[in-house]
Amino acid sequence: MTKIELNTEELDTHFFQDVCRYFDNAARFTNHHEGLLHQIRICNSIYRFSFPLRISDDDIEVIDAWRIEHSHHKTPVKGGIRYSMMVNEDEVKALAALMTYKCAVVDVPFGGAKGGIKIDPRKYTERQLENITRRYTSELIKKNLIGPGIDVPAPDYGTGEREMSWIADTYAAFNPGQIDAFACVTGKPLSQHGIRGRREATGRGVYFGLREAVNIPEDMKKIGLSTGMEGKRVVLQGLGNVGYYAGKYCQEAGSVIIAISEFEGAIMNPNGLDLEEVFNHRKTTGAFSILKEQLIF
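RESULT FIELD:
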């Protein structure tokens, strides 16, 4: 089988334009001035930068990164930082805009922002990832794009408590004596003033959304399903922090997880998978491999 490499810079996805199109469709039902709508639509600040990473004595790699603040109508702005080879400016702009709209819809007093570093974190050592994260943070500090009351990042795809602890520590080192320095980022470990439940929060939110969706009788009737999570067949796309906890809560509610996919492949059993067994096995081996009574495709 021939492996196909995709250049994400060449993918004509127009994610941000799609978000703006949905915004425009909703705006048609309002009486707001076009100038105001345009201000809401655009991203206020777009910061793209590159920095070198010394891989070895003879090798230096240039890392591309972004921090985009979509709306300053309320501060601080809020949004995660993702580490992925799929990161590009269009994606970060779109996700920043969606953060603004999500916060506005539920009346959370934050503007929207997003960040990203174009790397595959699996290809770097822990020390290299720490250097990348700390350098990224220092670049944000120089441009005043991070800080309590200014811009508060969070974990996202490819990042977690570890990366947030590096960000908090770097910011605190640049701002000695600032009493609220560790409020520059959320998603920190408990040992660095994180909060309980943050790790599970996104996956739990996915579960709550599913639970409410399947409890609408008229919708379930149209697709021939009963209401409630009991017996619902679930497929998880990804078994990271979000996928694991979303699956865990669905399973606890009586749903049956029949398939799980990840970057290296997928595993399926129409009779149901043991989420804990699959998660622990993959954590130990680093990939899906043959598991008893489970099918690989």
